[in-house]
Design a protein that fits this description.
There is one protein chain. Helices cover about 30% and strands about 15% of the residues. The protein is built from nine helices and ten strands. The strands form three sheets. The protein has a five-stranded parallel sheet. Strands 8-10-9 form a three-stranded antiparallel sheet. A two-stranded antiparallel sheet has the order 1-2. A hairpin with a 2-residue loop joins strand 1 and strand 2. The longest helix is centred in the N-terminal third of the chain and has 17 residues. The radius of gyration is 20 Å and the shape is globular.
Length: about 350
């Protein structure tokens, strides 16, 4: 497996490996079974019944939002309980990786905030609690958010990849996170955000590139994890250009600047997969990341493998079993890039 892709962004330092993780053997201790799960309720009073009639593919449910165009939005992630719990674990993981911060933008007293692709709404809930004076809106194509939320927060079923219904200069802050592989036209989405931001407002987008990277080349080329990267490089163009490698080559920066934004700042975060780092904090973060990826790697790949690449379900499940096994190999010192 190659080193992380070249970028002009500020890079994170190499991660030192714990010497006990220099052997090749799967270890159940790499997963943190103490992490809890959260189930959420959905308010159905104001929703079209068709939105709640989720599509089922190989036992997993997916959104049924078609919006004004009635053509639908192709989104690879399921919206069932397992997938939603995964989103909440990822929220915990990313908050830890940002030193318990919800955001990095220099916000002072935001009054109107939009969370794009809010998912289970967990980030929006935490933000609304931290800024009770702000009016926070979370939008998503799946109505999977809870009904009991802070009074300054509302959720709206909407597709952020279409024209936004909000007036010019509405928001002080637009937050986007974990939308990898979901958007065909990032420049168009960023332009809508630019239009809807007040002068001096901020947009913050935290996302990842699919795959594992390593500093010590411990993940060999030709491994199943290496094949995983190739699968998503092939799938993106077949999905109309939905990019699974957003942070390579500073694509964020190029698209934000094309949309009109200036003073674009970037920060690359290495999030280890497994408890292999020598640093105690990174070891804990790596344990959470491994737990998250291992518990439902199917959620990330099943739709892509079967609906886009047309694999048979048995072939896909065998491949995912191999991925789970390699994720737990203690000799592999990989990390995800955010």
């Amino acid at each position: 497996m190659a080193s992380p892709p070249a970028t002009t962004s500020e890079q994170a330092a190499d991660i030192e490996v714990d010497p006990t993780f220099l052997r090749s053997s799967p270890s159940p201790s790499d997963t943190d079974s103490a992490i809890g799960s959260t189930t959420t309720d959905v308010s159905t009073s104001s929703l079209s019944s068709t939105i709640l009639q989720y599509r089922e593919i190989h036992g997993r449910t997916y959104h049924n939002y078609t919006g004004a165009t009635a053509q639908g939005t192709e989104y690879w992630a399921p919206n069932d309980d397992n997938a939603n719990e995964q989103l909440d674990v990822n929220h915990h993981l990313l908050t830890l990786s940002l030193e318990n911060k919800l955001f990095l933008a220099p916000l002072k007293s935001p009054q109107n905030v939009l969370d794009v692709g809010t998912g289970t709404g967990i980030w929006a809930i935490d933000f609304a609690d931290e800024f009770p004076e702000a009016a926070v809106t979370g939008i998503d194509i799946s109505p999977i958010q809870p009904t009991w939320v802070p009074p300054n927060l509302k959720f709206v079923v909407d597709d952020a990849t279409t024209e936004w219904a909000y007036p010019d200069e509405t928001f002080d802050y637009v937050h986007i996170r974990y939308m990898v592989g979901c958007v065909k036209d990032w420049v168009g989405l960023y332009r809508e955000a630019y239009r809807c931001l007040k002068p001096g407002g901020w947009i913050e987008h935290m996302d990842c590139s699919v795959g594992l990277w390593c500093d010590d080349r411990s993940i060999p080329e030709g491994s199943v994890l290496d094949e995983w990267v190739g699968i998503f490089r092939k799938a993106g163009p077949l999905m109309g250009g939905q990019d699974f490698f957003l942070i390579e080559g500073d694509e964020f920066v190029k698209r934000l600047e094309e949309a009109g934004f200036g003073e674009v700042k970037t920060r690359v975060v290495k999030v280890p997969v497994g408890s292999w780092p020598a640093d105690k904090k990174l070891k804990d973060i790596g344990g959470v990341n491994l737990f998250s990826m291992h518990r439902d790697v199917e959620a990330f790949a099943l739709y892509v493998l079967t609906s886009i690449l047309k694999w048979e379900i048995v072939e896909a499940q065998v491949f995912l079993a191999k991925i789970r096994s390699e994720l737990k190999n203690k000799a592999y010192h990989g990390y995800t890039l955010w």
